[in-house]
Specification:
Elements (H helix, E strand, L loop, with lengths): L2 H4 L2 H11 L12 H13 L3 H11 L5 H31 L6 E2 L1 H8 L12 E4 L5 H10 L10 H4 L16 E4 L13 H7 L1 E5 L2 E5 L2 H15 L5 H13 L4 H10 L3 H15 L5 H7 L6 H12 L8 H6 L6 H12 L3 H8 L11 H21 L3 H21 L2
Parallel strand pairs: 1-5, 2-3
Antiparallel strand pairs: 1-2, 4-5
Helix pairs in contact: 3-5, 4-5, 10-11, 10-12, 10-13, 11-13, 12-13, 15-20, 17-19, 19-20
InterPro entries: NTP_transf_5
Protein name: Nucleotidyltransferase family protein
Pfam families: NTP_transf_5
C-alpha cells in the first residue's frame, strides 16, 4: 500500500485529536501500515515527542515497533532540549547588557506545554533592538560562534535576522531585529513589540517574551507565510497558546489590521477552530470575518497540510513554473532570480550602486538557491507525475498567499 496516499485528512485529524487532547480517536481499528503512517507523519512534522506523551497518558494500545520509535524520539528530545536550554542560558548571560526577547520554541516549550520535553526546538531565535545588533554580533563572535567574515549589519538587515551564527556542537542562533522578512506583505513595527513585551525567565536569567497577542500574531503569520502551512507543530503551538493565555482579541485584530496581517490571522484561527476545536470564540470570528472569506480557503489549506509535500520553492517560482513551459524558459526564470541587475542587488544588500562588491553577491545568491532549492528546482524542471503534484501544491499555496495579501 502507498503510504503517501494514506496521509489523509482522516489520519491527520486522528493525530491532531491526540496532540490537542480533543477526545480520543479510534486507534484500535488502525492497521500496521496506518500506524506506520502516523509515526512517519508525527516525525515529519516534529510532533513525535508530544504524540508519544499523549498516547502514553491515554493508555492506547500501540504496536511495539511504533511505540519504541516514538519513545526513542521522546527521550532523544528530553536530552536535546536539556542541552538547548543550557546553551541558551549561557548565551543569555552574555547578552545581559542588551534587551532580549526570547521567541517561539524556547518560550513555548517552557510555558504552553506540560513539559519542555514535549516541544521539538530547532535553533535559538532571539529578538534584539536594531540598534543593538552590532553589539549582539560582537558578543556571539567573542563566544566562538561564526562565521567571522560577515557582511555589514546594514547588509544583513536585508533579512529579518543576522546571518545565522553557528559553532561546532552547538545550536544555530538567529538574532532577529523583526519577526518576518522585510519583503513580506506584513508591516510589523518592532518598537510596538518591545512596548508590550512581558518578563520571562530562563534558568534564573531575566529576559523578555512577546505579549500573548503579539506571540499569537507571530505564530499565525509564521505558520501561513514563513512555513507555507507546513506545520502541524505550529498549529499545536497556536492551540496551546490560546489555551494557556488570556487573549485580548480586540488587541490581536487591531495589531493584525495595523500590520496588514488580518486575513492571515483570521484564516489560521479559523483553521485551528475548525480542525483542532481551538477555543476561538465564534463571535470573534464573526466580528473580524473578511468580506471575501469562504470555506474553500479552509479546504485548500487542509489540502496543503494533508499532502506529503513540503515545497520550498517560493511563490514567484510557483506562479512562473506553469505546466507546458519549455525547459529553456524555466531555466531562464531560475537564472534571472540569481543574476539580478546590479541596481536591484544594491537595493537588496544595501550596497553602493557602483561598488565592485556587488558582484560578490552573485555567487552568494547562487549558493543560496542551490542549497535551499536544488531538489525543488529539479522537480520543477522535470515533466513527470512528481512535478505535477509538486506544482499543484505550490499553486494552492500561491492562491492562498494572493488572498492573504489582498485588501
Amino acid at each position: 500500500m502507498d503510504l503517501k496516499k494514506m496521509l489523509s485528512e482522516k489520519l491527520i485529524e486522528l493525530l491532531l485529536a491526540y496532540l490537542c487532547e480533543q477526545g480520543e480517536g479510534d486507534l484500535c481499528k488502525l492497521s500496521n501500515p496506518e500506524w506506520k503512517a502516523l509515526l512517519r507523519l508525527s516525525t515529519y512534522h516534529g510532533v513525535a515527542p508530544l504524540f508519544y506523551h499523549r498516547l502514553s497518558h491515554a493508555g492506547a494500545q500501540v504496536p511495539d515497533g511504533v511505540l519504541n520509535a516514538l519513545c526513542k524520539a521522546y527521550h532523544g528530545n528530553v536530552f536535546q532540549n536539556a542541552q538547548y536550554y543550557h546553551e541558551l542560558s549561557e548565551v543569555l548571560k552574555q547578552l545581559q547588557r542588551i534587551d532580549v526577547i526570547v521567541l517561539k520554541g524556547a518560550y513555548l516549550a517552557k510555558t504552553v506545554y506540560q513539559s519542555q520535553a514535549l516541544r521539538f526546538i530547532g535553533d535559538i531565535d532571539l529578538l534584539v533592538k536594531k540598534a543593538d545588533l552590532e553589539q549582539a554580533e560582537k558578543i556571539l563572535l567573542e563566544m566562538g560562534y561564526g562565521p567571522t567574515e560577515r557582511p555589514s549589519i546594514k547588509a544583513q538587515c536585508a533579512s529579518h535576522h543576522l546571518e545565522t551564527f553557528t559553532k561546532k556542537g552547538a545550536f544555530s542562533i538567529d538574532i532577529h531585529w523583526t519577526l518576518i522578512k522585510p519583503e513580506a506583505p506584513f508591516k510589523i513595527m518592532p518598537d510596538s513589540l518591545w512596548e508590550q513585551a512581558r518578563p520571562f525567565t530562563v534558568e534564573d536569567i531575566q529576559v523578555l517574551t512577546l505579549s500573548p497577542e503579539d506571540l499569537l500574531f507571530h505564530l499565525c503569520v509564521h505558520t501561513a507565510y514563513s512555513s507555507r502551512f507546513f506545520g502541524i507543530r505550529f498549529l499545536c503551538d497556536i492551540h496551546n497558546t490560546i489555551r494557556s493565555h488570556e487573549i485580548d482579541w480586540e488587541i490581536l485584530f487591531h495589531r493584525a489590521r495595523q500590520w496588514k496581517g488580518e486575513k492571515t490571522v483570521y484564516l489560521v484561527l479559523s483553521l485551528a477552530r475548525d480542525w483542532l476545536a481551538t477555543s476561538v470564540p465564534e463571535k470573534v470570528l464573526e466580528q473580524f470575518k473578511p468580506d471575501d472569506f469562504n470555506l474553500e480557503l479552509l479546504a485548500k489549506t487542509k489540502e496543503i497540510i494533508t499532502k506529503d509535500i513540503n515545497p520550498r520553492v517560493g511563490e514567484n517560482f510557483a506562479r512562473l513554473w506553469k505546466p507546458n513551459k519549455p525547459f529553456r524558459e524555466k531555466l531562464l526564470i531560475f537564472l534571472k532570480r540569481i543574476f539580478l541587475p546590479p541596481d536591484e542587488l544594491a537595493e537588496i544588500y544595501h550596497a553602493p550602486k557602483k561598488s565592485l562588491r556587488l558582484y560578490f553577491y552573485y555567487p552568494v545568491r547562487l549558493k543560496k538557491y542551490l542549497v535551499s532549492y536544488s531538489g525543488a528546482v529539479w522537480r520543477g524542471l522535470r515533466s513527470d507525475k512528481e512535478k505535477q503534484v509538486f506544482m499543484t501544491q505550490n499553486e494552492r499555496i500561491a492562491m492562498l498567499m494572493d488572498w492573504m495579501k489582498s485588501n
